[in-house]
């Protein structure tokens, strides 16, 4: 100890670091950097939120129209002279009358609504009412009549679909300017529509058949629905779940718990990671070559779609399952082995239950990814106008041509009629609702199974 | 080359050993972790393994119930005889071995299940209980022997992970003895416990000696002195000295042992 550093007793040496109250330059700089970083973070989140808001607003404002549809309520006189010429109510004879037989009845009915209410219109013939109704309306009435032949001769109230132009007019999609060059409808029809809306004959209602119905042809946008393609997606997801969950979990358990770490397992691991990054369209062409051209499975079938999506989902499931198996503390395995459990018992009794929430989350995320996939479906023919109705049973659900939700949306977005544009947005709402509910299930399952250790 | 002290040679001649290890070598990849270990573990005795960190005492302990099998890069050579049978024989199923040689780990590791299921798991997989009443009895007996029955008897169906650290470790000991092993291996069972819990576990180890041969790895020399009758000192993968605990702690033959127990190395 030297004299210079010696402080006499009773005197507190001056603090070496200066006062605590005033910030020194270094601290100020550090605090500023910290504040800046926090601002960047907030800005990033805010940008994300803005994009999300814009996206959701766009989807909802464009798509909500699809859930409403314009209907015409009218009293139709089911003329026996037209529908049952022989008068014997023979079902086979009634079936011989095609929709062309019904169209005039509908036109007369609507024309009667117009004249009864004294609405003035330059349209003076019943046949000019055709532009107001959907082409599917006649078929709708015919179906009811074939179900109940006794109705013939009565006047029955029907709620029939309005044409997509009328629907578009009520939704603001069609205007008097836009119909100038439109062959199917004139401005007079729009005037008449206004009058009929005032009279309560034409109205917008909730459109359940958009959720449950089948796709329709190019010219019948008002009739098209997502129902059958939802079912197609459902059947595909069943195939994906049944194949990819057991295969994926078994592969991960083997790789993680049983396989020795060597060059082969490294190779497999690298390849699984690579498979997860392969563009989905590659899986599509693989599916086309293997399942359709080589194995001769039916084209456009949910079974093939499911097989292709299984290939895509497997790496996701394997990677997430391995991660959740890795997250189980090794002490649990030691504990089980230490009291004489076999390797299999330690995995099945202890490791798997602890890894289950992670495996389930990974599986549902993989399924959700597969559910939204369109590109591979292009190549196996699940995109396009697939005029299918509801499958008759489980087998036809898997094997009959069908579409899938994202493929249906893509197909609608491609069609010329602007009415389909609206339906594409509506389809996206349904797809998002399904995806959100799958994620919700994942979160609930996670909460339910999560355990502490 | 390391020369075995005379006392070691005489010990190895005894025929009363439960476990006999001869020229045991363990390699982790290129690392020679255990070199030429010869040791006899007797029935109804507590044998303590002491030594500085990384000296191979835990590794050797894990050889006795073949837990090292689970480590891919680990290679065990030499003979370890349990009741005269080579445990590394090709015909030996490690599952059967581990039912005979139970193990308690450093960190309490109860299963995230109920206390009852923690204890009942071993008897269930080994088919020790014929019916529910049998199983209940085994659970009660094991928890009593684990000196934890009084604390948990009212909440057998509560989670085992909800217990305190010391209780968890006694639960793990009770779980290990529920399968009626003949040898109990303990790998630093008290390192995560406070002094009171440690005292309880040590008391328990002393009682367990009546029925099992206990092998305990410990970092605490006081603990080795308190609970064991025989002590083995490991250093850098060699078994330096093995003999009666009293002798090791009062009159060690090897200078390294003396340095370690007096706190100069380690």
UniProtKB/TrEMBL annotation, chain A:
Keyword Membrane: yes
Domain of life: Bacteria
TM region positions: 37-60, 230-255, 275-295, 301-319, 351-372, 424-445
Keywords, in A-Z order: Cell membrane, Membrane, Transmembrane, Transmembrane helix, Transport
Record-level Gene Ontology MF annotations: phosphate transmembrane transporter activity
Membrane topology per record: Multi-pass membrane protein
InterPro entries: DUF3333, MetI-like, MetI-like_sf, Phosphate_PstA
Main location (coarse class): membrane
Localization terms from the record: Cell inner membrane; Cell membrane
Entry GO CC: plasma membrane
Family per record: Belongs to the binding-protein-dependent transport system permease family. CysTW subfamily.
Protein name: Phosphate transport system permease protein PstA
TrEMBL record, chain B:
CDD domains membership: ABC_PstB_phosphate_transporter
Gene Ontology terms: biological process: phosphate ion transmembrane transport
Membrane topology label: Peripheral membrane protein
SMART domains: AAA (SM00382)
Keyword Nucleotide-binding found: yes
Keyword Chloroplast assigned: no
NCBIfam families: 3a0107s01c2
Protein name, as recorded: Phosphate ABC transporter ATP-binding protein, PhoT family
Species of provenance: Primorskyibacter flagellatus
């Amino acid at each position: 100890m030297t004299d210079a550093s010696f402080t006499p007793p009773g005197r507190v040496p001056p603090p070496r670091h200066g006062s605590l109250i005033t910030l020194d330059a270094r601290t100020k700089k550090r605090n500023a950097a910290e504040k800046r970083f926090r601002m960047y973070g907030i800005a990033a989140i805010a940008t994300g939120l803005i994009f999300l808001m814009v996206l959701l607003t766009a989807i909802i404002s464009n798509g909500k129209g699809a859930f409403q549809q314009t209907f015409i309520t009218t009293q139709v006189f089911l003329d026996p002279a037209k529908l049952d010429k022989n008068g014997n109510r023979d079902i086979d004879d009634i079936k011989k009358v095609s929709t062309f037989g019904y169209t005039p009845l509908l036109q007369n009915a609507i024309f009667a609504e117009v004249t009864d209410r004294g609405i003035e219109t330059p349209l003076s013939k019943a046949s000019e009412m055709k532009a107001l109704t959907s082409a599917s309306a006649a078929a709708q009435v015919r179906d009811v009549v074939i179900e109940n032949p006794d109705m013939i001769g009565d006047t029955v109230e029907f709620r029939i679909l309005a044409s997509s132009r009328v629907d578009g007019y009520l939704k603001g999609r069609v205007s008097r300017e836009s119909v100038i060059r439109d062959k199917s409808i004139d401005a007079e029809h729009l005037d008449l529509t206004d009058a009929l809306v005032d009279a309560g004959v034409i109205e917008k209602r909730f459109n359940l058949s958009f959720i449950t119905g089948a796709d329709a042809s190019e010219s019948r946008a008002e009739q098209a629905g997502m129902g059958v393609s939802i079912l197609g997606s459902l059947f595909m997801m069943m195939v994906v779940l049944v194949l990819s969950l057991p295969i994926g979990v078994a592969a991960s358990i083997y790789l993680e718990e049983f396989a020795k770490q060597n060059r082969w397992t490294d190779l497999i691991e690298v390849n699984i990671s690579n498979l997860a990054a392969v563009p989905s369209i590659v899986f599509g062409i693989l599916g086309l070559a293997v399942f359709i051209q080589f194995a001769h499975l039916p084209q456009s079938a949910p079974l093939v779609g499911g097989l292709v999506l299984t290939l895509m989902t497997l790496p996701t499931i394997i990677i997430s399952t391995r991660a959740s198996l890795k997250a189980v503390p090794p002490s649990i395995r030691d504990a089980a082995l230490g009291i004489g459990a076999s390797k299999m018992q330690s995995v099945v009794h202890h490791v798997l239950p602890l890894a289950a929430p992670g495996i389930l989350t990974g599986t549902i995320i993989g399924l959700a990814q597969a559910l939204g996939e369109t590109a591979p479906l292009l190549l196996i023919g699940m995109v396009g106008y697939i005029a299918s109705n509801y499958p008759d049973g489980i087998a036809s659900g898997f094997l009959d041509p069908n579409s899938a939700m994202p493929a249906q949306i893509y197909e609608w977005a491609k069609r010329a009629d602007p009415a389909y544009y609206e339906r594409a947005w509506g389809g996206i709402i349904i797809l998002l609702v399904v995806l959100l509910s799958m994620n919700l299930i994942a979160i609930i399952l996670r909460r339910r199974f999560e355990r502490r250790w | 080359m390391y020369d075995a002290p005379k006392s070691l040679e005489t010990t190895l001649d005894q025929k009363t050993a439960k476990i006999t290890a001869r020229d045991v070598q363990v390699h982790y990849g290129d690392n020679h972790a255990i070199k030429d270990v010869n040791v006899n573990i007797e029935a109804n005795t507590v044998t303590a393994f002491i030594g500085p960190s990384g000296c191979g005492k835990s590794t050797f302990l894990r050889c006795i119930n073949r837990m090292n099998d689970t480590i891919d890069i680990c290679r065990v050579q030499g003979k370890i005889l349990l009741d005269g049978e080579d445990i590394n024989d090709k015909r030996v199923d490690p599952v059967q071995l581990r039912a005979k040689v139970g193990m308690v780990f450093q960190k309490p590791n109860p299963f995230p299940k109920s206390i009852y299921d923690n204890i009942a798991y071993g008897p269930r997989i080994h088919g020790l209980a014929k019916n529910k009443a049998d199983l209940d009895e085994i659970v009660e007996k094991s928890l009593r022997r684990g000196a934890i029955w009084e604390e948990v008897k009212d909440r057998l169906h509560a989670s085992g992970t909800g217990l305190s650290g010391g209780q968890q470790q006694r639960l793990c000991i009770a779980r290990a003895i529920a399968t009626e092993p003949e040898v109990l291996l303990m790998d630093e069972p008290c390192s995560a416990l406070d002094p009171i819990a440690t005292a309880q576990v040590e008391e328990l180890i002393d009682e367990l000696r009546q029925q099992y041969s206990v092998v305990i790895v410990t970092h605490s020399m006081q603990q080795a002195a308190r609970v064991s009758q025989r002590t083995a000192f490991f250093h850098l993968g060699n078994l330096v000295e093995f003999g009666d605990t009293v002798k090791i702690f009062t009159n060690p033959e090897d200078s390294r042992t003396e340095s370690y127990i007096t706190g100069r190395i380690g």
